[in-house]
Amino acid sequence: MITDIKDAVHAVDAAAVMGLLPSRPRLLALGEPTHREDTLLYLRNELFRQLVEQEGYRWIALESDCVMGLTVDDYVTSGTGDLDDVMERGFSHEFGSFAGNRELVRWMRGHNDGRPASEQVRFAGFDGPLEITAGASPRQALTALHRYLAARVEAGLLPCTAEALDDLLGPDDRWTEPAAMMDPSRSAGRSPQAGELRLLADDLVALLDAETPHLMAVSSEDEWDRARLYARTAVGLLRYHSSMADTSPNRLTRLTARRDSMMAGNLLAVAERGGTLAYAQNSHFQRDKSSMRMAGQVLRWWSAGAIASCRLREEYAFLAMGLGTMRDQGVDVPPPDTLEGLMYALPEDRHLIDPRRLADILDGERPAPRVSP
Question: What mean pLDDT is reported for the chain?
């Protein structure tokens, strides 16, 4: 039984992380084993500060609503809004209530205060506007994209008016019906109106692409970037709602895949703008197929990280995290013959493990898998 892995252990800091990688990644993904653990959020914050100060990283992207995240970015860059309100309106999944996230936003605002835009750190959400029980209405993304184009291109080039979009969208609650997650008949995603909206969204995105030279000339970088975000989100949400109305056996798998595909598009867009630390659950970053059990099925899909890795290649890196104990969630001391047990026996509270050196030490032995709630 392997008991000594000290030779594979490093301190947990940005310099040690970079030392394990062949080159500085444009997108460094930091995965958590579960949400709601402030210990990990504070560690993430510390690493981000070091990456900013030592490696020139400028962006942090969290597993939170990409459109809501614009509120946080406005606050950290210009001080727009009040911190309490920003934490309430700028995060999905109740992530704004986490102390570690509040500390991150406060630090980013303080860091940026008085700095020129080129030296400021930026915030992005990279999840779609999705919750466990429903997807958001595509109204906000579609109308924002239409509004951006209407202000910058000839009216005759637009495929529809704002009023026509509004009529087709109808009441928002028809899109956010919670029962639709388990009952596809309750979804509006394949109604005649939804079908027409998908065609119009496609036309609006095509217009955005076709007018790129003009639009970039008359827009700031942030305006252009946000227009592309609205375009990705509008198309992604309409696809997601269509899958909500699917009655095939692969419906839930398709929904999980749609979500991570939206995540990947947002991650790649953020990484275009500079060195980025992304933070989410491990299953959204791993290169192997992700899986989970839901509604009596085992779902398997390619994660956002797997997709981004194929596009970025060596400019993508994934650092997975695990926890020894989470007693408030029923996770006790790990068995000594598991990988977590080997790390738990080390004297320090936290460790960075070199996987290549660890493989050499294990020499073909595989620790027992840890079974955890």
Answer: 95
